[in-house]
């Protein structure tokens, strides 16, 4: 059993590209070994900025390729087809034999079993695997023809402690690599991964990203516990930092306390996004002036610490200047400045947008029963921070800064909060706005954007969504569901389209309303899948879905999904299925037209009367419930009909010879099915064993 060890040494590869290469190249080798029936005991890939490593342990030195029958052309095919088959497989005509299959009679030949060296296979296929890798971003350098993420300097390739020699563009593989990323004349020879890893770790270089993560977390914890501080769980940042260093050294730095007076979001953004630092918080979750950095060199003289502190101070000085300058500029007076900022081609400027939002928001406020004045005010000024210098410097803070500006200028708290939360939710796991005014502004903004972009046919395709319209639509759905609200979305979409028309924006999409309906329905289906709602329940909900009842539809699906596999769920489905199947069969066989009129006066049995009574009880319940319907109670009531339904079918002959009686009994069953449909389209549901 032998080890395959491959190292690609290059100039520093960005964290995202490095991780992608590490994972994809491992998958490609796994796929290659599977196709060749080469088994391994263990495999993994590692990386640091300059090195990507792939290791397979426990490989056989030889592989046996069994003989197999290769099918050629049909025996009735033209001679040219057979000649081509013989040439392409480098065989003689005497090697052929005829064999009958299900699809006819064909020519075959049988390959010979053989034994191949794993070393030789790797020599042939490693260059092909490397060549096939598709970079998101690549580059060329010097006079070389190779496209790679960053200039590739060497390839170390070993199997069973021997070099796998191959050419890859201008590079020739070997058993040596550069041991100093800055001094390329320093090289060392290796024959296995274990020796390689131990050597570099003695130098303080950790090629294994998992070990680097443990080192960072362990040292973070020591410092934070000692200082009684904590950091936020920014896993994305941590993952990026881990892949930016190979010799992690942790430093605790600080900035001038005076900067704590500016909005904390500016401090966090400066440190996390711009500098890849980790801000710290005290026990009250207040941001402090101390932050953690992960350096790639040891700071023997404290110069690294001083340098990083100076960088942060410089950026925060700029931020403080912009904040002081922008915070007092009257937001209402800045509305007219939005005329100079384009929203999108064919959709006007941001001044046009806020005018539409003001009217649309007013309509939503009526539905939510909140102050129209506050909603219209928040809509009018919600984009004014786009004219500020601080948002120009930190565009990620748009909306948030508008909230801070309005609070500083003494606007109502509801208005300031709505402004700060107008873009929420940002993603699937982002929080949604909770305050009714925030809900109103967030949905207003998103509806206006959806209508506008669909109106000018800037719609997502199967592979692309450059304007994040899917995320916007999902944001509307999540906001409504998580706030337990229904809105008349169809009317709002129509009104929004009219507002564009009033501004003389003529849409070339004549199917606007229909396409938006289907788009939102598709996003709703996606949301239900993410919530692990059973697929048949999803289809049942979607079959009768209305945009005006997004929350209600979700709650119905959730409640049914919760009980569908227990006794209540089984009772409901078995009851409906027995009734609908009998109804369908009888209607098909007897071709009777029913008119939804059941005559209790011609009932012959108590079983008919009991079922009729139970159906009317359920109908009375559904006619009495309003928007506050308790769906769990509704399901319980439906489940309780099982006895009367099964008693009816067990004791009453539906296919009665008397046509009047037969028709009346079918109408009774039809009445039952329609009553069940008050909850959901049960026709789509599957019984447990289907």
> Which outline best applies?
flat
Give the strand order of the largest sheet, numbering strands 1, 2, ... along the chain: 2-3-1-9-10
Oligomer: single chain
Helix/strand-derived category reads: alpha+beta
Specify the number of helices.
24
Which regions contain 5 or more consecutive residues with pLDDT less than 50?
Answer: none
Query: Any guess at the CATH architecture of the largest domain?
Result: Orthogonal Bundle
Q: Averaged pLDDT, please?
A: 92
End-to-end Cα distance, whole Å, is 48 Å
Radius of gyration over alpha carbons?
35 Å
**How many beta strands in the DSSP annotation?**
17
Kindly estimate the percentage of residues that lie in beta strands according to DSSP.
5-15%
Tally of structural domains: 5
Q: What is the CATH third-level topology name of the largest domain?
A: Hypothetical protein af1432
Largest sheet: 5 strands, antiparallel
Instruction: Bin the helical content.
Output: 40-55%
CATH level 1 class label of the largest domain? Mainly Alpha
Fold and architecture overview:
The protein is an alpha+beta fold and 690 residues long. The chain folds into 5 domains: 2-63 and 117-202, Alpha-Beta Plaits (2-Layer Sandwich); 69-112, no CATH class; 209-326, no CATH class; 335-530, Orthogonal Bundle (Hypothetical protein af1432); 561-684, Isoleucyl-tRNA Synthetase, Domain 1 (Orthogonal Bundle), CATH 1.10.730. It is 49% helix and 13% strand. A hairpin with an 8-residue loop joins strand 13 and strand 14. It is flat and about 100 Å long. The model has no long low-confidence stretch (mean pLDDT 92).
């Amino acid at each position: 059993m032998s080890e395959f060890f491959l190292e690609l040494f290059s100039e520093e590869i960005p964290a995202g590209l490095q991780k992608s290469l590490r994972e994809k190249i491992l998958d490609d080798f796994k796929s290659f070994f599977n196709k060749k029936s080469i088994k391994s005991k263990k495999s993994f890939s590692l990386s640091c900025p300059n090195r990507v490593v792939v290791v397979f342990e426990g490989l056989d030195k030889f592989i046996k390729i069994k003989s197999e029958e290769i099918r050629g052309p049909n025996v009735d095919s033209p001679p040219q087809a057979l000649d081509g088959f013989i040439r392409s497989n480098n065989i003689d005509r005497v090697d052929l034999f005829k064999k009958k299959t299900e699809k006819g009679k064909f020519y075959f030949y049988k390959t010979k079993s053989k034994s191949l060296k794993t070393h030789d296979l790797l020599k042939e296929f490693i260059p092909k695997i490397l060549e096939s890798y598709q970079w998101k971003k690549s580059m060329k350098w010097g006079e070389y023809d190779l496209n790679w993420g960053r200039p590739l300097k060497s390839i170390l390739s070993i199997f069973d402690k021997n070099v796998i020699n191959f050419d890859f563009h201008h590079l020739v593989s070997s058993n040596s690599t550069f041991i100093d990323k800055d001094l390329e004349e320093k090289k060392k020879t290796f024959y296995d991964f274990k020796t390689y890893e131990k050597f570099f770790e003695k130098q303080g270089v950790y090629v294994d990203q998992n070990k680097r993560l443990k080192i960072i977390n362990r040292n973070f914890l020591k410092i934070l516990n000692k200082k009684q501080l904590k950091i936020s769980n920014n896993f994305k940042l941590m993952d990026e930092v881990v892949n930016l260093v190979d010799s992690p050294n942790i430093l605790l730095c600080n900035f001038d306390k005076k900067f704590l007076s500016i909005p904390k979001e500016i401090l966090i953004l400066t440190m996390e996004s711009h500098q890849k630092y980790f801000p710290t918080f005290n026990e009250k979750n207040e941001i402090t002036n101390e932050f953690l950095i992960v350096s790639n060199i040891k700071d023997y003289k404290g110069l690294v610490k001083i340098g990083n502190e100076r960088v942060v101070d410089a950026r925060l000085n700029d931020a403080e200047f912009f904040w002081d300058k922008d915070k007092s500029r009257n937001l209402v007076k800045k509305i007219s400045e939005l005329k100079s900022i384009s929203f999108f081609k064919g959709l006007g400027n941001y001044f046009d947008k806020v005018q539409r939002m003001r009217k649309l928001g007013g309509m939503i406020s009526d539905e939510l029963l909140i102050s129209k004045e506050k909603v219209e005010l928040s809509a009018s000024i919600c984009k004014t921070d786009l004219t500020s210098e601080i948002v120009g410097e930190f565009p990620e803070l748009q909306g948030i800064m508008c909230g801070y500006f309005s609070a500083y200028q003494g606007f109502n708290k509801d208005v300031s909060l709505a402004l700060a939360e107008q873009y929420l939710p940002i993603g699937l796991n982002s929080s949604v706005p909770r305050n009714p005014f925030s809900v109103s502004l967030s949905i207003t903004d998103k509806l206006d954007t959806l209508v506008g972009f669909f109106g000018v046919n800037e719609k997502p395709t199967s592979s692309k969504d450059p304007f994040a319209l899917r995320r916007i639509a999902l944001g509307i759905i999540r906001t409504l569901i998580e706030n337990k609200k229904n809105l008349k979305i169809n009317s709002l979409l129509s009104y929004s389209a009219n507002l564009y028309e009033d501004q003389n924006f003529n849409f070339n999409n004549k199917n606007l309303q229909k396409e938006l309906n289907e788009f939102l329905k598709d996003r709703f289906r996606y949301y239900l899948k993410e919530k692990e709602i059973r697929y048949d329940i999803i289809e049942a909900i979607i079959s009768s879905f209305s945009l005006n009842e997004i929350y209600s539809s979700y709650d119905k699906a959730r409640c049914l999904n919760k009980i569908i596999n227990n006794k209540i769920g089984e009772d409901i489905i078995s009851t409906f299925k027995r009734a609908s199947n009998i109804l369908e069969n009888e209607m098909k066989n007897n071709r009777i037209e029913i008119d939804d009129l059941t005559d209790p006066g011609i009932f012959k049995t108590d079983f008919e009367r009991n079922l009729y009574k139970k159906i009317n009880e359920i109908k009375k319940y559904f006619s009495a419930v309003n928007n506050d319907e308790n769906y769990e109670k509704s399901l319980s009531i439906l489940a309780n009909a099982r006895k009367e339904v099964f008693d009816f079918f067990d004791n009453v002959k539906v296919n009665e010879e008397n046509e009047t009686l037969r028709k009346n009994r079918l109408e009774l069953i039809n009445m039952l099915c329609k009553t069940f449909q008050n909850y959901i389209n049960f026709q789509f549901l599957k019984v447990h064993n289907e």
